[in-house]
Structure formats: C-alpha cells, structure tokens
Design goal:
The chain is of the alpha+beta class and 121 residues long. The chain has a single domain, classed as 2-Layer Sandwich (Pantoate--beta-alanine Ligase, Chain: A,domain 2). The chain contains 1 helix and 4 strands; from the N terminus they run αββββ.
Length: 121
C-alpha cells in the first residue's frame, strides 16, 4: 500500500478559501459602489450650494430692492440644469427681510440645497 501525500490542500479547504475570498470581494464591491454614490451626491450638493449662493448674492447686490414674494429661475452649472426658487419674507424689522433659496436638479422635486439669509439696507 502507498502512503498518502500530505503536501497539498483538500478540495474542502480550497472551496472554503474561495468562499471567504468571494464574500470579501462582494463586500469590497459594495463599499466601492457606496463610495461612488456618496461622491456623486457630494458633487451634486456642492454645485447646488454654489447656485444658491449665487442667487443670494444677486439678490443682495440688486440695484432695486426686491419685492417680497416668490420667484424662480433656471441656470446651468457644470453642464447640469438647475432650478432655483427664491422666497423673500418680511421680518419683525421693516428694514430687514429674510431670503430663502432652494435649489434642485431640473426635473426633480428633491431639494439639493437650501440657503437662508437676510438682506437689508
């Protein structure tokens, strides 16, 4: 009778190692996908915030005093169409008004950024 060699791995050991590597690979792919989604969302929020700040600056720098109420517009930034909505509201001080700017992607109801501020004389 010949003696069995103990130099290699058994089939069960190889399959268990492959299962461990497969689970680790799937986990890494999931983490990579989540990071990509987070980066895309961060980019969206950053550009929306810039659009909101631009609208706020235009409101503050306007030659004529903007009337209270709501208006909206569209702008393109980073090859993306954005829709902004501006509300000008009175405050307890007649010389001071509250401005709220909301920005979303064109065709979307989800707000990407909201910016509030005050304008006065």
């Amino acid at each position: 009778m010949r003696e069995r060699s103990e130099a290699g791995f058994t089939l069960i050991e190889v399959m268990a190692a492959l299962a461990v590597f497969a689970i680790a690979g799937i986990s890494l792919m999931h983490v990579s996908a989540e990071n990509a989604r987070a980066a895309t969302r961060l980019q969206e929020v950053t550009f929306a915030r810039i659009v909101a700040e631009n609208v706020m600056i235009e409101t503050a720098m306007a030659q004529t005093e903007p009337a209270s109420g709501e208006d909206e517009g569209e702008v393109q930034m980073a090859a993306v169409d954005w829709v902004w909505r501006r509300q000008i509201l009175p405050t307890g001080n007649p010389a001071l008004r509250r401005v709220e700017v909301t920005v979303s992607l064109a065709g979307s109801d989800r707000q990407a950024a909201v910016l509030s501020g005050f304008i006065g004389p």
